[in-house]
Amino acid sequence: MDNLDYGIIGNCRSAALISKTASIDWCCLPEFDSSSVFAKLLDDEIGGNFGIKVAPSYEIKQRYKKNTAVLITEFREGNDVFEIHDFMPRYLTSQSQYYAPPEVVRYIKHISGKPKFSVHYEPKLAYALGETKSYIKKNFIASLTKGKNFETVFLYTSFNKNAVMEGRELEVTENGYFLIAYNEKIFLPSTRKIYLELERTKVYWLNWSNKTPNYKKYNAQITRSAITLKLLTYNKSGAVLAAATTSLPETIGEVRNWDYRFCWIRDASMVIKVMVDLGHVNVARRYLQFIVDLIPEKGEKLQIMYGINKEKKLTEKTLDHLKGYKGSKPVRIGNAAYKQRQNDIYGILMDAIHAQLNIFSTNIENAEELWGITKGIAWIVSEHWQEPDKGIWEFREEDRHFTFSKVLCWVAIDRAIKVARIFRKWQKIEKWSMLEQEIKQDIMDKAWNDDVKAFTQSYGSKNLDASVLLMESYGFIPARDPKYISTVKAIEKHLSNDGLLYRYKNKDDFGLPSSSFTICTFWFINSLFKIGEEEKAQKLFDRVLSYGNHLGLFSEDIDFKSKRLLGNFPQAYSHLALIECAINFSQKATEQRILESMR
Questions:
Q1: Which of 145, 194, 198, 334: CA 20 to 30 A from 293?
Q2: Is pTM beyond 0.90 here?
Q3: Domains in the chain, ordered, with CATH?
């Protein structure tokens, strides 16, 4: 497989990646950040997978059930046809509780004829660290590993268990199922019960998707991206994951391989702001409660990231026994970046808090805590905004005065003032307004470089950086301001490569990047649109959409030459920026339609 041609299924507790030939190549149970059950994605020899094998004459097609997270893979040879409906159960019970067990279900639907397939079932528990042994029992196949950790997983099926484990050919003459469960089932499954689980899960996703507005253009892409973002939310705590995977490389054969199964305050806050715009307010409410729970002491500094269960220590380790995706080592679990200081997170979080308060005003259960956080953030920014940091791209070398970080410090105070207006806290507004003006003037004086005619990556630097494109969208500078237009043009000239953008071109800790950071390209498209180059932006957007995989999913990066997807997958950052672009184009189309109807 030369591209990340995977679909994602999940239930807001964990997720699985399934190849376009229906092999489960990545799955961690019981939760997103647990050790893997299947990790062929990171080692195609020892990682383990759950594969479906058919004769080469079969035609295989894959799609999502419309407006759901149910992935359907169709196998067809003449009149012999069957489908696999892959999903992880999620639905409301009669007690109004979400049922989301740590299980993967593969519903086998007989369509016609007598199709045949065989199974390659090879779980490799605990990141394939020890030996996993499987045993055929009366009601299930139990797989377990004994090492530092004792792990088990159970496979229930309507097919002959011996034939399954031996990889013998199975004939499909009626509907059937496979159910991978982290826990042994108290009540045995049946094909009828599994079908009911499938229907209930479909209904859940259809109801959820129905809350997303319909758009005149790119409606399918917006809905699929919204579902993908929802799949990356962790229902138990309200955390939002950056991606479902670890160690998928930004460049094949290099070492930029990180674990993204955590909640970055920046990524998550951007995601929930978009979700609020789409009408999915419960995601935002749970996330803001996650933040409230993390800040027990007034004035306590935020980490840039946390574990999905609010862990504050995310020790980084390498799994040297795994060879990595396409041989790209090391495979990492944990992420040492949690220790970094990045001053931009305060502005992004304040922007998300303001976005929700703006909709619900004071009719929100944690309003007092959010006002407390607002005051705490304003104090922290006032004390530390003049200090250098690691920046949005997490440079692991010396700290700098990054322009994006400074702009987001300004955003933090600007949004704090707006929140103060909502809560009628007039005494804070005058004090914070002076600070807002001070930060803004500092940026205008020190971030602009007359030689390159642009706002640059950091104070005193000539290096360009795609993150400064967000100065407009955060309200720091108008789109038609000559300095902003000049910055967009400079970034296009120096950072664009065949329509795809570098984050930056100056060498970092690991040398010059050779792949495009997907979100930066979407930021650039948005900037072109905002400065009036709408036709150019539209063409570029359509071209970038064509680089998504067969299901319209995006990873973190796109290779400049081959246009293959690289980096962790699917990436929340990429899909939230896709939604923002698509909504802009759709709203423009709606405005034009209204104007034409008035003529």
A1: 334
A2: yes
A3: 6-209 (2.70.98.10), 211-592 (1.50.10.10)
